[in-house]
Amino acid sequence: MARAPGTATATGVAVGAYVDLQQLVALRRHANDLALGSRQPAHSLSAGRHATRLRGRGLSFEELRPYWAGDDARLIDWKVTARLRRPFLRLFTEERDRPVLLVVDQRMNQFFGSQRAFKSVIAAEVAALLGWAGLARHDRVGAILFDDQHWRELRPGRGDRSFLHLLSCLVQQNQALHALNPGDAPQQLNAALGLALRLARHDHQVVLISDFYGMDAHTRALLTQLRRHNEVLACWTQDPLLTGLSPSDDLVVSDGRLQMTLDFGRTELRQALGRMREQRSEEIFAWADGLGIPLLPVSTAEPVAEQLRGLLGPVQAGSVRRG
Predict the structure, then answer these.
(1) Is residue 46, in this structure, part of any structural domain at all?
(2) Which of 86, 273, 283, 303 is the most buried (most CB within 10 A)?
(3) Where is the DUF58 domain (predicted)?
(4) Each residue of 264-317: pLDDT tens digit?
């Protein structure tokens, strides 16, 4: 299984079965160069750094276009209208912040890991890194945190104090996970997305961080609705267990109290498990492609900051790539 909690890596960040607040705060220095969505030069005195297509009296000229019925008459450019003898509007691009909403899965299905850390830890680290990246570009950051029985709604707030409170709630939820806890709550994924849909009505960056246990047709419908008025990004937490196992490999598994050894010497068993893993991967990528949502596969085997940097690219690129 994963290393014991509190084991230090070369970067000085602890990994294992649980996270703590110090660990998530330490990730801040790795987040400033993460390209979370688009980034544009400042065009106005408004908060935030994202160019939007708001129509109004902004400081950055965008275009002239003919007046259409129902347009705001206050935007008519009277000089151009007089010269061309038909009404024209002068339109501007204003700038405003784009709230980031992190939807973070801390269910028992995430409480598993075979190498560097548990999937629940990876999810918390992804949330911290992308949250710090949002704060670095002056966005508000909020979250829907959910486990097998509860969910917590934290509305997007601005500044370190608000985000530290969010991280504290995430740590509390993460540290409550235990092998003896009841699990198997596939319905919580859709419940959390329903909350996100209510909270992120327009122009949010919604980041779903999960292994997608419980994904079904209703999940697709909820994400389709979210994507209609928001930018949606999916981070798939995964563990490389069974990848590259040789016939001589034995696997020791434990629930924290008892342990057992699994013999993978049978070729048929290894092949069947490999096919099952490959089928699951193809299903998730096809699901994301069908929705038009970028999918970032994040493994428990490597430092999360390095993975996100490779998947998202540098800030200057402002793009998301599939890994």
Answers:
(1) no
(2) 303
(3) 63-276
(4) 666 676 677 778 778 888 889 999 999 999 999 999 999 999 999 999 876 553
Asked whether residue 318 is assigned to any structural domain, the reply reads no
Q: How many domains does the chain have?
A: 2
Kindly report the average pLDDT of the chain as a whole number.
81
Same-domain pairing of 144 and 80: no
Same domain, 61 and 171: no
- pLDDT, tens only, 240-273: 875 655 555 666 665 556 666 666 666 676 677 7
Task: Give the whole-angstrom CA distance, residue 50 versus residue 138.
Answer: 10
Q: Picking from 106-110, 119-123, 176-180, 204-208, which range would have the lowest pLDDT averaged per residue?
A: 176-180
Give the per-residue pLDDT at 240.
86
Residue at 266 is within a domain: yes
Evaluate if pTM is beyond 0.85: no
279: in domain: yes
